Amino acid sequence: MGVGLTITVVGMLVVFSFLALLVVFSRLMSVIIVKFFPEAEEPEKPVRRTVGSADTDVAVAIAAVKAFTKS
Amino acid sequence: MGVGLTITVVGMLVVFSFLALLVVFSRLMSVIIVKFFPEAEEPEKPVRRTVGSADTDVAVAIAAVKAFTKS
Amino acid sequence: MGVGLTITVVGMLVVFSFLALLVVFSRLMSVIIVKFFPEAEEPEKPVRRTVGSADTDVAVAIAAVKAFTKS
Amino acid sequence: MLSDSLVELWRSTGIYGFLLPGGWGNFVMIAVGLLLLYLAINKEFEPLLLVPIGFGCILSNIPFAEIAAHTTLTGEMVDHAFHLHEVSGGFIGMFYDFGVSSGLFPLIIFMGVGAMTDFGPLLANPKTLLLGAAAQFGIFIALLGTVALEMIPGFSFVEGGMAQSILHVAGSIGIIGGADGPTAIYVTSRLAPNYLGAIAVAAYSYMALVPIIQPPIMKALTTEHERKIKMEQLRHVTKTEKIIFPVAVLFLCILLLPSATPLLGALMFGNLCKQSGVVDRLSNTMENALMNIVTIMLGLSVGSKMQAEKFLNVTTLGILALGLIAFAIGTTMGVLLAKLMNALSKKHPINPLIGSAGVSAVPMAARVSNKVGLEYDHENFLLMHAMGPNVAGVIGSAVAAGVLLALVPVFGA
Amino acid sequence: MLSDSLVELWRSTGIYGFLLPGGWGNFVMIAVGLLLLYLAINKEFEPLLLVPIGFGCILSNIPFAEIAAHTTLTGEMVDHAFHLHEVSGGFIGMFYDFGVSSGLFPLIIFMGVGAMTDFGPLLANPKTLLLGAAAQFGIFIALLGTVALEMIPGFSFVEGGMAQSILHVAGSIGIIGGADGPTAIYVTSRLAPNYLGAIAVAAYSYMALVPIIQPPIMKALTTEHERKIKMEQLRHVTKTEKIIFPVAVLFLCILLLPSATPLLGALMFGNLCKQSGVVDRLSNTMENALMNIVTIMLGLSVGSKMQAEKFLNVTTLGILALGLIAFAIGTTMGVLLAKLMNALSKKHPINPLIGSAGVSAVPMAARVSNKVGLEYDHENFLLMHAMGPNVAGVIGSAVAAGVLLALVPVFGA
Amino acid sequence: MLSDSLVELWRSTGIYGFLLPGGWGNFVMIAVGLLLLYLAINKEFEPLLLVPIGFGCILSNIPFAEIAAHTTLTGEMVDHAFHLHEVSGGFIGMFYDFGVSSGLFPLIIFMGVGAMTDFGPLLANPKTLLLGAAAQFGIFIALLGTVALEMIPGFSFVEGGMAQSILHVAGSIGIIGGADGPTAIYVTSRLAPNYLGAIAVAAYSYMALVPIIQPPIMKALTTEHERKIKMEQLRHVTKTEKIIFPVAVLFLCILLLPSATPLLGALMFGNLCKQSGVVDRLSNTMENALMNIVTIMLGLSVGSKMQAEKFLNVTTLGILALGLIAFAIGTTMGVLLAKLMNALSKKHPINPLIGSAGVSAVPMAARVSNKVGLEYDHENFLLMHAMGPNVAGVIGSAVAAGVLLALVPVFGA
Ligand code: NA
Ligand code: NA
Ligand code: NA
Fold it and tell me: Which of D241, D294, D305 is nearest to D266 (CA)?
């Protein structure tokens, strides 16, 4: 039981310290980034896509849309 | 040759018994299900889809369709 | 160093011979094929597609297109 | 030095290898591999399997390249632990060791097949299950044929340590008649791995040839009147039935024939994933990415078993002959049972043309039933009716495989 | 001969197997597997895991089929090289050996989870990380509970060589409270593999039951006023922050707790691939094909650990009870810490309903927070706010797992 | 007890590990890993490989975590059968053992590359094959350079058991000049695995730097008139030619150089699957799911070979220098041969800018040819013309690899 208690105390200590440190770090990081590396007002880059057939599917579908709707 | 014949006889016996049992069982199951658990007249659930990009593709395409056809 | 030189000489010899043979062969093959097995003027076969959901997506989208555009 | 080097290089060429004793065999096998590629690409004979098999055959017969060499694990054995330093071997040899000799690949393919199969037509007309049973006769006739062939003096399947007993070979050859690739590979890899190349090639070749093998038999055994029988439209099968059926088949198999449960279990796992509709992510992966990956590796592995010394042999002719017989008899029995069922019961007549679909060879055999039917009545669509015996044939050959896996090791010990 | 054959076949049936001593246990476990399938398919309880686990449980309890048998490598040992001839074993047993006992599968799943996770809500409100810490109390309370239970005479988790020490079992049971499947499987496969079946089933069952377990606790601990607290809208988080965060977490973990780096490393690798936006091919594959393939094999493997002799035991009841306690306490501590934080600082109030999401069980627990919130104010959408503690809970339980993996082997030696 | 526990935990922290003798090396390597991530994500240097390599480098240098530890198989050896109980090891170590030391991963990647490659431009203008041959000079010059460097006293690539012979290292370093990742990894894993990290990183870095390394050389060696040469439009290549070509290359390789058939065989298998058009399921999987899965595991594995004691060494500088020389010489020889060919035959002139594409580095080097061409005549599109030597370079370096794999083990014995 003693060992169990030890692990419990140490465990929660570590979990809290770790996540508390992470809170501090995340805040710090966000402040620095927002201040010194602000996001350019770039028009959101279109998400890159996997190479593969899905892209062409959409292309096909949209082409079809255009074809059908032009007339 | 004797052993071969034995395996043949036993084998076809088992195959037929197995599938015949399956006939009986399937009939029974169907009768029970159709009688006691009839399919609700629900509007066929739209088939669930894999999480992933394909869904959004269709969404994109259909959105495009709507956009193009609204005007 | 001697062995290194040997490998270098042999290596480049083999690389060049191999690719030179390939030049000869490719030319020969092309001549024969273009002469004796000319490509039929077939309307390019539609590319086969993987079995799977992507196909049906396009089908769905195109069906949607038709539905929307009919009216 | 330079000349040493050139001599060394010459001794590592394929030309030198082919000229060594026995090297011509490799050369011939490479030609056989090319032939398979030609049939797969130009004639579209089961290309998904025959392209990898043909290419695997070529790669595995290259002198000195050792692409089909077994895996070697190098390391230190300390007490009960083997500390691995390196894994080596030919790349196709490794696919074979870990995927085929272990039985994994055919079972994973079966999961994918399950995820693609719809037992609906079978459930709408359960008696077609019996057609799938009848068509398995071919398996056992070919088994008997193998035992008979072995008695011919000078002709032997087991000599030279090629197999544990003639029954082991007979079971494996018989299973060609199951007309189901993964089942044939699974059974053969367990019973007679030395014959894996010949048997897999025979199985896939005949499956590709179903449109040529079956129609004459079907026509010979039926009257024109029978071929024109119109079957009743199949009733709607509920989702619940489709969910319970795979579990039920598995249960029957657990109770009666555990030796078939790896095959039927994998098949029904895939099918349950599909039909349940709650794990579509998984069933889609089973029938696409996972199945394709395994198909590539399985095909190459099977091709690697087409080694000259084992394939260029009169026994291969025996296997081809017996396989053809198995297919023909399976087709025959399927058609005949359909006729018998019509004779016994007048209501709900069965068009005997769908009996031939019981050999499995999904979905080719069902398409053949449909095509022959349309020849005689161009409005009689038999496809869905034939899908019943067709998938029943898959279950039937898995059951037959279970019997063989249970009895052969006992009697052939 | 024929009768020999039939006797032989009868002795290989499942019916015969179930009637052998101990066979009833397999039968019961098959029923348990069916129950899991029913819950997964009809009640949609975590079907992606419970369908494969349930099916794996059924297949692995089939008499004579040996589907869960360990791998055997057959070959020749020459000097330091083992020349492999054949690989054999049950197909699910092989998945287990190479994927679960090795720890590979849960880590690959974690990559996929990372590729699907958005730490944005967490970065917008970092103090919610602490809620993810509080909810890990459940882990350690269940650990203490296990140690206490072991003191009951006649009840033992370690007897009969089931585990190396009670601490090994206690750590594994505790991790159920982490409410994170891959973490639970990873830790248990390292510390107490014999309990893998029961623990994984408990973990996934309770994760599925989160909508039933959590709301009463959440309501009991909060006032109506608290439940209606509106939180400030989350700020926009830049791409740079999202790229640096996974690397930062990994670094903290490297400096303080290397034993958690396999888990957190895999998670953050997946996340970095996603957020960096330069390797979308890879992150898409991680969260789709690769994750699905591994989910199938992992689920079947976990099911294969539901063996009668290990599962049909009073200890399983203990595991279920302790797991439930762990979930309840994790939920409680999350809610209480949120209340405490509100008490300490008045600005930026936190709705304590999001505290319960700290147990992880992504994204179910966050959805529960949202749903309960909407019950009291149908315009108060807590989902995005709850995603912060929710993903923090994943980090928190990986950290707790790291502590257990570092200390248990030392103290439980 | 509590303090024991804290001491225990402190001794397992990364901080403690970095402070141990030699620990600083791991810390530096983690920084190197970060640098690779930075280059991959911010500068988009070959991110598909450098993200996994960088992350693998970080994970494998974490103290005490043993993520790159080799596999250990635990079990019982009975006669010729090893009954496996457990598989253990670091997860990246296991990827390395089964995928890289075995040679599997680079070959599977090559299948995918084959499935993505179009040999059409090469077939339209076969003499560009020779440019792909000339560019392999870099390989052999770097090989000679390595042998020369080894003679410097105090500098050694083989000391301390790092390699079997200097030729083994020289061949592996030379292959950097092949500008082809999978070929470099395959050859190095066979000849000098201890240098895998440095060589793979050098190869991929220089491939990413092709747009910086090549243009000055190309411009220095050509006149403005030459850079403006317009090439004739490429003729249409029939499907039949594209199907026969991969088989033909394989055959030449079988006859002359079996040691290159694993690489060229895998490449041509992928290509035949693509071009045949009958197995699109398989070729799509090869170039997508399968290739992505293997890329992830291969990248992590290569990163795991960036161990402090092997990487933080003056020899790494030697490798980087020799690799750069190899790239530069390959580029030079490609351009020079193009000029020579123009000098020998006036009809069908070749723009010497496409000569540099012969180093492979597909498709980057072809794009560089195109870009430099456009600088001098903005209507002179060289891309398709440069794809010929570019894919020829892949064949050329595989052939060179075959020669090295055939001769080095003999002369370096
Ligand atoms: Na069959
Ligand atoms: Na958690
Ligand atoms: Na090259």
Answer: D294
For the stretch E314-353, pLDDT in tens is 899 999 999 999 999 999 999 999 999 999 988 889 999 9
* Matching residue, tokens 């494996």: D172
How much is the ipTM here? 0.90
d(CA D114, nearest CA chain C) in Å? 15
How do the domains of chain B map onto residue ranges?
A: 1-38
Say whether C61 and B65 touch across the interface (CB within 8 A).
Answer: yes
> How far, in Å, is the centroid of ligand 1 from the Cα of D134?
10
CA of F266 to the centre of ligand 3 (A): 16
Query: What is the pLDDT at residue B40?
Result: 65
- CA-nearest of D383, D377, D342 to D121 is D383
- Can you give the pTM of this predicted structure? 0.92
Beta bridge partners of E74: E86, F81
Ligand nearest to the CA of D361: 1
Residue D87: which H helix or E strand, with range? Answer: strand D81-88
List all residues of chain D from 375 to 404 with a beta carbon under 8 Å from chain E: 403
CB contact under 8 A, B12 and D170: no
Instruction: Find, in chain D, the residue whose alpha carbon is nearest to that of C3.
Output: D1
Q: Which ligand is nearest to the CA of E203?
A: 2
CA distance A47 to chain C (A): 19
CA E208 to CA C60: how far, in whole Å? 33
Residue F282 forms contact with D (CB below 8 Å): yes
- pLDDT, mean over chain F: 93
> At how many degrees (to 10) do helices F196-208 and F181-191 cross?
160
What's the pLDDT score for residue E345? Answer: 85
Identify the pLDDT of residue A37: 82
Cα B15 to Cα D151: distance, rounded to the nearest angstrom:
28
Non-local (6+) Cβ contacts of E99 within 8 A are E105, E294, E297, E298, E301
Closest CA of chain C from B37, distance in Å: 31
* Nearest ligand atom owner, CA of F210: 3
Please give the pLDDT value at position C50: 38
Burial of B19 (0-12, 13-18, 19+ CB in 10 A): buried
Q: Between D253 and B65, whose confidence is greater?
A: D253
State how far the Cα of F293 lies from the Cα of F305, in Å rounded to an integer. 19
Judged against a pLDDT cut of 90, whether residue E233 lies above it is answered with: no
